[in-house]
């Protein structure tokens, strides 16, 4: 696969963390598989991964709460 952002000819398998607001709550999903360009860092999600993320967010059965701090830029 070629990177659509920089044109690099090889992207590599990796994992990433996804932060997503869903139903008014912020969810952090760790170790999500992606293809990442080693040149510019652009990440590509396979359609099956996107479907799995949607299902996971629709039914977050094993979510554990974490502490976060909200700051306002002013």
Give the structure's gist in a few sentences.
The protein has one helix spanning 47-58; strands spanning 12-22, 25-36, 43-44. The chain has 74 residues and is an alpha+beta fold. The chain has a single domain (1-74), classed as Ubiquitin-like (UB roll).
Describe the structure.
This protein has 74 residues and is an alpha+beta fold. It has a single domain (1-74), classed as Ubiquitin-like (UB roll). The protein has 1 helix and 3 strands. The protein is globular, with a radius of gyration of 15 Å.
Protein traits:
alpha+beta, 74 residues
Estimate nothing, just give the exact number of structural domains. Answer: 1
Average pLDDT, all residues: 93
| Record field, number of beta strands | 3
Q: Which architecture does the CATH hierarchy give at level 2?
A: Roll
Give the helix tally: 1
Question: C-alpha Rg, in Å?
Answer: 15 Å
Q: Report the β-strand fraction as a percent range.
A: 25-35%
Structural class: alpha+beta
Identify low-pLDDT runs.
none
Largest sheet: 3 strands, antiparallel
What name does CATH use for the topology? Answer: Ubiquitin-like (UB roll)
How are strands sequenced across the largest beta sheet?
Answer: 1-2-3
Q: Roughly what percent helix?
A: 10-25%
